[in-house]
Amino acid sequence: MRLAAKWRPSCGWSSGLGQQLIEPVRIRGEWAEVVRLGRGRPLVVVPGLAGSWRLVWPLARTLARHFEVITYSLRGDNAGWGSLGGGPRRAWDLGEYAEDLASLIQRVGLSSPAILGISFGGAIALELAAESPRTVGPLVLYGAEAQFHRTLGSTIARRVLERFPLPSNNGFVNQFFHLLYGARPEPGPLVNFVIERIWETEQTVMAQRLAQLEAFDVTDRLWRIEVPTLAVAGARGVIVPPARQQALAEGIAGARCEILPDAGHIGFLTHRAHVVNKIRGHLRRVEAAV
Predict the structure, then answer these.
(1) What is the pLDDT of residue 147?
(2) Mean pLDDT of residues grouped by 10 in the chain (290 residues)?
(3) DSSP assignments along the chain, one per residue
(4) What pLDDT does 63 receive?
(5) pTM of the predicted model, to two decimals?
(6) How many alpha carbons fall within 13 Å on the CB side of residue 247?
């Protein structure tokens, strides 16, 4: 699919921030697509339910001005796994995604790195932090909660994705992505970019991940998370309301929640400079406390 012209400089493959490397890395016996760019303290970015690392690319490029950013394709993202040889085995629960993340951290030679988990990626980061606390360092979670609440809307979305092939260029279908913004967005290159990246993930994979979120619950294991944690929430978030992200922070010892005014579920794109500032501030506080 073609990126809108205005967004090509922000999303292109040349970062201008030092060496950028896109390479296959063997994760739990299978090859995955891993991206590294920038210099500085390592920061692993775990992408969300759809769009792979390509959806978070504008954020990754901005973060790479301050960190060495490592991001990757999740199991099931065919562009990142299947294209590297053979059909990938999909993950059947969030525990398997967490094991992939732990393997990635080990394979690229990191020790308890800082992790940014976005939405579905936040659930993966929480699962890993609860089950393997020594694997992770400071956490930043955007659009995540301890137990993702099943709603009528999410159930309908999952069943439609499971049963009906949807056209990626249908305006009526794509208007449902407006929920990601918390308000109807102005038409333009960002809207086109988000739609194009989301549809690069297969419908069946999106449906499967929605089902995994419906079964996800880490509330009774939050006490195991001892690393400094920051939850960042969009004030207009309707996918995961800010009150539930605040509740997540309250369940983790010493964690904080910061709210971005006017941002929605994809505030990591629409308000990415503010998100980067929140991340930098969190990690500076962590360093100062050592």
Answers:
(1) 92
(2) 37 41 84 91 96 94 96 82 60 90 95 96 97 95 89 55 58 68 83 90 88 93 96 92 95 96 94 96 92
(3) -PPPGGGHHHHSS--SSS--EEEEEEETTEEEEEEEE--SEEEEEE--SSSHHHHTHHHHHHHTTTEEEEEEPPTT-TTTTGGGSSPPPPPSSHHHHHHHHHHHHHHTT-SS-EEEEETHHHHHHHHHHHH-GGG--SEEEES--SSPPP-HHHHHHHHHHHHS---TT-HHHHGGGGGGTTSPPPSSHHHHHHHHHHTTS-HHHHHHHHHHHHT---GGGGGG--S-EEEEEETT-SSS-HHHHHHHHHTSTT-EEEEETT--TTHHHHTHHHHHHHHHHHHHHHHHH-
(4) 97
(5) 0.88
(6) 13
Q: Is the Cβ–Cβ distance between 99 and 131 less than 8 Å? A: no
- Report pLDDT for 180: 85
The architecture that CATH gives domain 5-289 is: 3-Layer(aba) Sandwich (3.40)
What does the pLDDT read at residue 30? 85
What six digits make up the tokens of 144?
A: 């995540």
- Please report the pLDDT score of residue 227 as a whole number: 96
> Which residues in 73-104 are b (16+ Cβ under 10 Å) and which e?
bbbbbbebbeebeeebeebeebebbbbbbbbb
